[in-house]
Amino acid sequence: MKMTATQKILAAHCGKESVAAGDMIMADLDLVLANDITAPVAINEYRKAGCDNIFDCERVALVMDHFTPNKDIKAAEQCKMVREFAAEKDIPNFFDTGEVGVEHALLPERGMVTAGDLIIGADSHTCTYGALGAFSTGVGSTDMAVGMAYGKAWLRVPSAISFVLHGKPSKWVSGKDVILHIIGKIGVDGALYKSMEFSGDGVKNLSVDDRLCICNMAIEAGAKNGIFPVDEQTIDFLTVVGAKEPKAYYADEDDVYDDVMDIDLSQIKPCVAFPHLPENVKTFDEFGDIKIDQVVIGSCTNGRLSDFVQAAEILKGKKVAKGVRVLIIPATPKIYLDAMKLGLLEIFINAGCTVSAPTCGPCLGGHMGILAKGERCVATTNRNFVGRMGDPGSEVYLASPAVAAASALAGKIASPESMV
Amino acid sequence: MILKGTAIKYGDNVDTDVIIPARYLNTSDPKELAAHCMEDIDKDFAKKIKPGDIIVADNNFGCGSSREHAPIAIKYSGISCVVAKSFARIFYRNAINTGLPIIETDAVIENGDELEIDLSAGKITNLTKGVTDTFPPFPEFLQGIIDAGGLMNAMKTMP
Ligand code: SF4
């Protein structure tokens, strides 16, 4: 039976020759993840059910990245509970303070994810790892509790939409513009319950960072997962970070898909998702002046080194517009250090930006950079729902690091082309 | 099981950030979560609902984050069931795993309509409009989880 790449990974993890869309399976897990918000609920469920066993201590990751460094007493208590659990169960992959980074940047960087893996995480952006040829998907805390105890998860086998990428994106177009462009076309439920499988000769023109950003936002189209084919760039990345031996899976043929969309990367323009849905995507010829109060460059979507290299190219030797608060949040300690070594942090600070320790922080309206009523922010994050970054009357505009940096200089939403 | 209550109607894409805003996720206490349920789109939600009331929505209910706090907040606010044209997938599994009844149907329902839902027979009756619709049962596998009272319990008996 013909299968998609995703279906092949699922079949391999439930001991079946083949699976078909709609099948319910119990799959074996390679890695289970939770953060400081979802782990406490999972631990409660785990304890309530009288569980004691952890299926494999090495394959559980607990990342304290959301409300950390602890933003208040309750957040501190949540982290403490997870910290004690990790110690009790001898879970080595517990990441806190100096070691912590935003989970979906941290795990790939530490070599904890490889092609062909099946990963669940109690965080919706767990779908990020599809960039490396893994099946990964976001689940809830009860799934996480079951995953920790049994190393298993129930899954409904998804059908898929194929996105065939051609051509090369232009200078200021990044993975963020590609995924916003796609979500703008298919909508926030355009891939509901389905896989988004990417392929085509354009894949080689997207860096691993671009692919991580694209798969990160698959959930913003309602998808179960996003997945890229494994190529030389993937293998190089996995080798450098010291990941396990990769297993590459490829879809059988185009006719395994519900739908096929051709995307010409060379035609994509820098774009912005307007409040309050990631599907409200506009290019710069479609709107006028929109004044802003804040810019955030960071998150699991765009907090990687290449994102800061792009932003620094625009901000170098300049000053951010008066009255605009600009936050730079490297997603992991390593990215922070690399950005420092490259002199990027100096460029940002001289331009008038604030540089923060790795955290999710403002991305989910947690802390550090919360918006007041009526304020507008251009953010490289992935969600612009009502109240996502603060007051329900504030607004978040989603864009690439290049657009965010250009906007920081202009004091209004600006295209990178107009600022360099 | 038969559920009866008044419809509280919302539109498309009700996301988890409005169901329970992240600023309240520094707790996992169900009662505290319930106190802030839906407050960013419906300020008086917690005050106005009566036990048994039913949330009704259009497409993609529960889109956004994986926070299980969302179905928990809804359940502990006294809502007996969520009825929508479609659900976002993580919300869907979280509802099943935590035992919040959910139904996918295209039935026409307005705010304030009185509803009666027979979960096992797959019937939803709009008492105000006098119309009964059917909805497909859950796949057997999921019904097993529901019958066991949630995933943690179901796992104990699974092979
Ligand atoms: S950076 Fe934002 S989207 Fe990513 S894991 Fe943190 S809160 Fe979630």
Explain what you see.
The complex is a heterodimer of chains A (420) and B (159). Chain A contains 14 helices and 18 strands. Chain A is α/β, with parallel strands linked by helices. In chain A, the strands form five sheets. Chain A has a five-stranded parallel sheet with strand order 4-3-2-5-6, covered by helices on one side. A five-stranded parallel sheet of chain A has the order 16-15-14-17-18. Chain A has a four-stranded parallel sheet with strand order 10-9-8-11, covered by helices on one side. The termini of chain A are far apart. With 159 residues, chain B is α/β, with parallel strands linked by helices. Chain B is 30% helix and 20% strand. Chain B has a seven-stranded mixed sheet with strand order 4-3-2-1-5-6-7, with helices on one face. The longest helix of chain B is centred in the middle third of the chain and has 10 residues. The mean pLDDT of chain B is 94. Classes of the chains: A alpha/beta (420), B alpha/beta (159). The complex binds iron/sulfur cluster. The site of iron/sulfur cluster has 13 residues of chain A, from α4 and α9.
